[in-house]
Amino acid sequence: IAMAPPPARVFAELIPARAPSPLPVPVPAGRGGPREPSGREVHVSGNAELSAGPDRARVSLRLSSRKEAAGEARSSVSRRLEYIAHSARQRGVPEENMTVTEDFSRVENTYQMEAEVCIIFSDFGKMQNVCNLLIEKLGTSVTISPPHFYHTPEAVDTLRRQVCVAAVGNTLRKAQEVCRLFGQSLGKPLLVREEETKEWGGHIDIPLSNSPDSLTLQERIQNATAYASCRVFAVFEIKGKENRRNKLL
Question: Where found (predicted)?
Fold first, then answer.
């Protein structure tokens, strides 16, 4: 059975000149309703897709000590807390990027002191250096959780702007190529409209036999990478025949 060929996909449309209408149809301000073509136009759509890796990582370090004397339990944890804070500061971590929470309790006939340090890193190489040093110097007396990577709101906003601008640029280049193909010169933009945006995360498949904690550092960064796409529709004026001098350039 012969099948009909698929319909052609129109990515550009050249609009011929029209006679001026004696009564133009007004378009309300701020509305994307139908518009009366002012002359010869080219209608094009363009797409772009970009990604951005996480710009922050949060690491949690847990300490604990159980002693018969309350002062000894506190002192044991305090010394390690001071060493952690000193090591991070020496490697350029701001004081405001470190948060410490402490919990002191009585367990049977002993005193237990627990503490957690949360450190926010913007430099992942610096994060690895600090964690490696603490593991080397403190050993099993400190428990370091795998880093949690994420994006700040500013990084997400930057990605959204960049993908929109990239889509507009692709749309402009497509319009230029269409006009050049027909020997025409592209004029000013008459309409630029963002039609669709999408955002998603770069989640990777984790085998059922593995736990999320078994991911490597690069896999965690990939898993936290953000993606965005944008589709733009634009209408450009066609000025006329392409200038031969510009064509040679």
Answer: Cytoplasm; Nucleus
**Tens of pLDDT, residue by residue, the chain (249 residues):** 444 444 444 455 555 555 444 444 444 444 445 555 556 899 999 999 999 999 999 999 999 999 999 999 999 999 999 999 999 999 999 999 999 999 999 988 899 999 999 999 999 999 999 999 999 999 999 999 999 999 999 999 999 999 999 999 999 999 999 999 999 999 999 999 999 999 998 766 655 545 556 788 999 999 999 999 999 999 999 987 765 554 444
Q: What is the CATH number of the domain that holds 203?
A: 3.30.110.170
Q: Are 112 and 104 in contact (CB under 8 A)?
A: yes
The encoded tokens of residue 102 equal: 């402490």
Total domains present in the chain? 2
- pTM across the whole model: 0.74
Q: Are 143 and 182 within one domain?
A: no
Name residue, tokens 């994006």: 151
Q: What is the dihedral of CA 54, 55, 56, 57, to 10 degrees?
A: 50
In a domain, residue 140? The reply is yes
Residues 96 and 164 in one domain: no
**For strand 41-52 and strand 56-67, is the pairing parallel, antiparallel, or unpaired?**
unpaired
SS3 content of the chain, % helix, strand, coil (to 5): 35, 35, 30
